Each structure stands twice: as C-alpha cells, then as structure tokens.
Amino acid sequence: MTNFYPVVALLGLAISLISVFRKSPFFNFIGIQITVYGLLKSAALIMPPLPGQVITMYMAMSVFAFLIYFSIQEETFRAFLEPMRAVLADRDKRILRVVLVFILIPLLAGYIAYAKTKPSFEPPVSARIVHPEPPQQIDFRGKTIKILGLENPLRKDTEKLKDYIEEGKKIYYQNCFFCHGDDLDGKGHFAQAFNPPPLPFRGTDTIAQLPESFVFWRIAKGWRGLPPGSAPWDSAMPAFEDFLSEEEIWKVILFIYEASGNKPRTWE
Amino acid sequence: MTVLILIVLGILLSPFNGFAQDDTGKRIYNQWCAQCHGYEGDGEGYAKEFTFPKPRDFSLGTFKFRTTPSGDPPTDEDIIRSIRNGNPGTSMPAWKRFSDEEVKALVEYIKEFAPDVFEFEPEPIKIENAPPATEEIIKKGKELFRVAKCVECHGQHGRGNGKKAWRDDFKDDWGYRIDPANYTYPWELRNGSSLKDIYRTITTGLSGTPMTSYQDSLSDEERWALAHFIKSLQVERRLGISLRLKKVESIPESTDDPQWESLDWLDLPMAGQIIFEPRHFTPTITNVRVRGLYTEDKVAIMLEWVDKKPNKGDDGMPPDGIRLQFPSKIPDGSERPYFYMGDRRHPVNLWVWNAADNLGKEYIAKGPDTVYSQQKQDVKAVGVYDDGLYRVIFVRSINTGDSEDIVFETGRFIPFAVTVYDGRLQEQGNKGVISAWYYIMLEPSTPLRVFVLPPAVSLMVFFAGFLLHKRLSRKADA
C-alpha cells in the first residue's frame, strides 16, 4: 500500500506541471496538494509512518501557504478562482455543475458529517513495558538475593556445565514449554490462550539483551513481581519460587540461553 | 604448505562429507525431539507425563499418520509431514526451522528406532480425484457416517462424544486413554483438517488406536463423501479481544432458541491453569464460545463448549462446570484485577454453574484462595448438554444495587474471563481450564444526531452552492 503513494505524488506533480503550461493556477494548486500528500505518505518507505494528525497539520499548512501564494497577485488570484466561478455560473457547464456542486459535494459533506458523528467504540489498548526495571534485591522464600551484579553461580563450574544444562532442559520441558514453546519460540501449545503472549527466547531481542540476574528475577517472581507499568494483572507467568529451587532456576536459565543460541549480557 | 592447504580444505568441506551427515539426524533428534520422544525413541521423554496425547513411541514402529495401508510403515514423506506441519491440538509443533536435508537426516534417525519395520518398502495410497463439495455428496456422507458406525465413537455431530469412547477400555496400543477426534474443531485435528487430510485418515486409519482403516470396507467414492460430510461439520473460529452485545426486547430462555444462532460470537482459546497449585498440564477443552445480548434491565451471556463425556458429579468424579468472571467494578485506568480469580486489592465477581445442580451461583474472589459466596444471589443460570455440546446461559440484572457487583454500563468495555471444568479429568478448584481477559460491550443504541446531522449538512452545502450559483450567474448576465 505504501508503494502506491510515490505514484500519487508523481501524478500530482504531473497535474501541477501541465497546469503551469496551460496557465491554470487552480489545477496547479490541486496538483501541488496531491504531490505534498503523496510525499508525506511516502515517507513511510524510509522511516516510521507519520501519524495521521501530523499529516493533517502539514496539509493544512500547505493549503494555507499556497493559497497565500496564489492570492498575492490579483491577476493570478482571478485566474485561480476562474474554474470555480465557471462551474458555478457558466451556462455551458450545467451538467458539470449539477453533478459536482448539487450532488457530489453535498453528498461528500454529508458523509464526512456521518463519519464524525457516528459513535465509535474501541476496546482500551494497554501499553506495557516489556523489560521493566528489576528491583535491587528480592526475597526468595525468606532468603534475600541481591539482583544487582548477580551472576549465575553454576556457570563457573565448567566441568559440570553440560549436566546442569541437561537438568535445565528437563525442568524446561516440565514447567515452561507449554507456553514458551518446544523450540523456545514463544509458541507453546498453551500460548494462544494467554495475553500478553509468552515471550520467545529465540532471536536477539529478549534474553539476549538481558543479564541472567534479570531472567532469574522474572522466573522467581513471575506475574506478581511485575510493576504496574508491565500489567501484572494480565501475565500468566507463574512465580516459580513456588515450584522450583534457586538452583533449579539457574539450571533452566543455563538451558534457555544454550538452546536459543544466545549469550547473557554481562554486568561490564 | 600443500599439507596445510589440504587440512584447511578438509575443514571447509567437512559439513559435506558423509560422516558429518550421519551425525545430523542424531544431533537434531537429541536436541529437539528427545525431550518428549525420549533419547531411546521410546516416548519416555521428560515431558511425557505433562502432555496429552502422550509423545509417540518410535520403538514399536507404529505410526498414526500415514499414507500407507493399515499395518504398513509410513513413507518418509509421512514422517516429514508430521515434522513440518506438527500435530494440531497436541504439543507437537510445526518444525519449520530445519533445512530439508536436516529433516531427511532426522527421518533416517527416527527409522533406526524400529529398523525391522522399515526394511519393507511401503506402497502409499493415491489421494486423487477429489469430487467437489455438493449438497448431495454431503448428504450421502452423512448417511455413511451412520452406516459405517462412525457415530459410535465420534457422536451424531462428530464432536468425539460417542458412547463407545466412554468405556474404560477405550485405549491405544500403549494402554493410554485416548479420545475420538472432535471434527467440529479443526484446530484439534492432529492429522490435519483439510478434505484430503480427512480422506487420508479415513482411508488408512490411525495405527495403534481404535480408528481403523476404511480402505476395504468403503469404496473410494464413499470415503470422499464421508470426508466431505466431516469437513462440513467444522466450525468457524472467531478470535478477537471483544464481543459487542446488542439490545433486544426479551432474552431467549432456552439454549436452542434460534435467536442465539443469529448473534455474533467470540471464541476463547483455553489453556490449563498453570500458575497456582495444582497446575494442570493436560486439559482437553480447547475452546469456549461466547455470545450475549441485553434488554432494558438484564444482561445474558451464553457459553458453549465441547465436552466429550458429561459428568453430573454422581460417578465419583466432580461435575462439569463453568465460571464467568468480571471485575467487581469497571476499571478506570488500565489497572484491573488479576486475570485468574482477581487479587487482594481487586475483587472479581464469579458466576458459577455446574452440571450437578444446574443453577447459577454468585461468588466474590480476591485471589485463588479467597473466595466467598455472596449474601444476595442475583445470577440465574441454566445449562443443557446436547450431543457433546454444553450450552449454559447466565442472566443477571444490569445493576443489582449490590456494591460488590459489576454494573453493566452501556458503551463501556468490561473485562471478562472464563474457567471451565471437565469432571472426567478430575477438574475442580484450581485444576481448571482458563482464558485470558477479554471484553464485552453493551452496544448503545445509535444516537438521533447520527440520523439527523448528515442530511442537514448535505442540504446546507447544497443550498450554499445553489445561492452562489444564482449570485454569480446574475453577475455574469449583468
């Protein structure tokens, strides 16, 4: 759809150029406005699309500016108004007048009025923070764990790392994969029932961006540890301190990084 | 120098040599299949007790999903189809990430778990000449559905609720409980839900299960007719986040009133409750359909779901039931009660129905451990089980006057959630099947200005144009 707008801009430019040669400021004006609109919409090709309100604002400025431009010289302004006058007054423009002024424009105005007065109802959209600020420390079944600077204690034990990852795999497929998926892609067989959908671990924009301590906090505290900005009331993430030990959580963290091919962010 | 170049070349080419390829299947299997199917291919993986249906045991060489005659091993393409498409309604996902070569290597490795079975080269059936869907062929299929005794397991409407399946000895070759397929929910059909998938299942049967092959007992034409009928039973699933209720004169009291059929609906995908003990990993109810309407002073919501065996609570199992949840009051901002049973600061209303007493009860919950019955009971409910399908209607006043009850203001999006219980699976309390928050909105009648303003604006613009025309043409004449 966005590919269609540069064509609109070119069409507007063509109308504008032809109008210059035919000395018709009115159609020149129309062509310029179409060009501006097409260009503003085309911006979506190289950057995030401009919001509707911004486009409306720029269009209003463009209309205003070119109206001033065309009305500075009396000669030009008269020529500019000529097509409108002709449609309204000339005898030989009767059919065009009936179609345009007496039918199409009133219908269009009626439609705009309808679109503005018709009540529209949209369900509330709740924006949520996906990676909230973790707390300094948490209480894990009565034990205080400092989150800041915390590292996975099992990662240092390189000799047993392989076993830990295998144990983490078992924990994952008995506790997590229903939602986060067999392939750690967030598409487990329960995922569709929950909103927000479970996070994928595969890819570079979730756990790859986070230190393991953050992941530990999210697993241990689940939905009830989320700040209000992250909509804890919607999250189906269990607080795994209810089901898993500290060591089991570290093991499953080892597994999800290993299996998704990601590396945790470090504190440096 | 030459030696060095040869070594480098050897390293570079190593992924292409035969030895490395032999390892691919095993490597992928151990990393991405063994968690369910077991390192020995015996179906004894970590997730076995946490899934229903259970992971396939490859060591017997018995495969459900084939294009080959009953008793024969599957073709490589059959196994590839299961890997690539997954098995809907189970924990087997569609594995798209691996290359065709990797999947081929994987298939070779899976076949090694039952080498004797795969010594034999199977002859696949041909799936061709599918006739077009006509009323006639569907009618013929319906008749065959009865004659071929499909009804015994799958039920009149194909909801998988046939009485034969209620028997304790209705099991697969491994001795595990098995459910006949519910044809009406395409998202649950393990072997795929297209016409050809259905034809294939009927023709080859599902080895290791009570679903036998109909290749010999029905003609090709008859099997296509049957497939067409079964395909015609599939419902349209409407997913979304909100449902709009229309205002009517009176609420239809019976669950089979045609007025319910004329309403829009919202389908809620369901999942086991896995947040609080006891966590429930193997539910079989996958969907609850919601419809609703309202009158001047009452709101009615009908919930509909497939349950393959009714439980009234008189057989030692808990009764089937359903629970509708609303916040105690419409949330002002985005903050609302916890989606499952609310929380201490945000109570929820629970409207509860179960098959044992068939009436509506009202509770307040402030979390899963804090539930109390309300003094004043305002909810009425009536439910009917008909051929595999539960339909329950809840009715309550729009405003009960009770400060703990939600007031159904028109034009507001009101959160609701559902929990459903299947007694056959011992579901009760926190062991239930739950949904996320969704919204209902009582659609206000269209305000008068919508009908008045647009024609008025049209007329005004018309007259403005007309007057300008008059004035300018007079000037031109003069």
Name the features.
heterodimer; A: 268 residues; mainly alpha; Cytochrome Bc1 Complex, Chain D, domain 2; two-stranded antiparallel ribbon; 2 strands; B: 478 residues; 26% helix; 18% strand; globular
Task: Walk me through this protein's architecture.
The complex is a heterodimer of chains A (268) and B (478). Chain A has helices at 4-21, 25-42, 52-71, 74-89, 94-117, 161-175, 177-180, 212-221, 246-260; strands at 137-140, 143-146. Chain A is mostly helical. Chain A has a two-stranded antiparallel ribbon with strand order 1-2. In chain A, strand 1 and strand 2 (143-146) form a beta hairpin. In chain A, helix 1 (4-21) runs antiparallel to helix 2, helix 2 (25-42) packs antiparallel against helix 3 (52-71) and helix 8 packs across helix 9 (246-260). The longest helix of chain A is centred in the middle third of the chain and has 24 residues, at 94-117. The radius of gyration of chain A is 31 Å and the shape is elongated. The two termini of chain A are 45 Å apart. Chain B contains eleven helices and 14 strands. Chain B is globular. Chain B has three domains: 19-119, Orthogonal Bundle (Cytochrome Bc1 Complex, Chain D, domain 2); 135-232, Orthogonal Bundle (Cytochrome Bc1 Complex, Chain D, domain 2), CATH 1.10.760; 242-442, Immunoglobulin-like, CATH 2.60.40.1190. The longest helix of chain B is centred in the C-terminal third of the chain and has 29 residues, at 449-477. The interface between A and B is large, with 57 and 71 residues.
Tell me the CATH architecture of the largest domain in chain A: Orthogonal Bundle
Question: Structural class of chain B, please?
Answer: alpha+beta
Largest interface: pair, residues per side: A-B, 57 and 71 residues
Cα end-to-end separation of chain B: 105 Å
